[in-house]
Amino acid sequence: MTDHYDSIESLLQAIKTNQLSVSDAKAELNQYDELGFAKIDLHRSKRQGFPEVIFGEGKTEKHLIKIIHSLLLHEETVLITRINSEKANTIITKYPQLEYHATANIVCTRLNYIHKTERQTAIICAGTSDLPVAEEAAVTAEVMGISVKRFYDVGVSGIHRLFAHIEDIRACNVSVVVAGMEGALSSVVAGLVDHPVYAVPTSIGYGANLDGVTTLLSMVNSCAPGTSVLNIDNGFGGGYNAAMIINMLEHHSKME
């Protein structure tokens, strides 16, 4: 395996100084790995700061294993979302360097291998029924190197539970608020903190919840500024966006 180079110029310098062969340089310039059924984006981490994420739902075990092999061959961090326990167990047996988070439905690089930021994101969950989405957000952020603080079962029907943690939430740099039903929790949190809030509606609720549509519309219509709304049950998007903000803060602080 070759090292990853930050630019074409550094790649050319490596060839010039005999640190890299021409054949290895050609492999480094290859932007994707052609698997026939998939094209693995090998330059995603260079463009966006994190490798391609695998959406596990609908993919066969055979396809998943080949995709993982490609990512590991190129020394990429692995994150697979929406994967059931049967597929996960097959993958972990073949790749014991990965781990399965059952509540989040995620297989990923072991979290203890990943260095975490000092800055933190708060993952705030209204109720226990929302935990799979909240954990998808939390584990996604952790795989991306973010320190996470979890605040679960703090919905507005017992709002004193939220207030018991509000100072710890305020100390974080981003909040991801996961809620179903009427989705009021995101507006409450956004009105109490001075950092960005990502609201993630879930499909949890009774009939008029309309599988999360009511929650989505409620969050979109929030009167609390500083709130951005993700798609229904999109914990991955909430965790990913929070990670991007914190990684940006970390990058700029290192440049100062």
TrEMBL record:
Q: What SMART domains does the database record attribute to this sequence?
A: AIRC
Q: Which InterPro entries match?
A: P2CMN_synthase_LarB, PurE_dom
Could you say which residues form the signal peptide?
Answer: none
Question: Where does the PurE domain start and stop, copy by copy?
Answer: 119-251
What SUPFAM superfamilies does UniProt report for this protein, alphabetically?
N5-CAIR mutase (phosphoribosylaminoimidazole carboxylase, PurE)
Task: Tell me what this protein is called.
Answer: Nickel pincer cofactor biosynthesis protein LarB
Recorded source organism is: Staphylococcus nepalensis
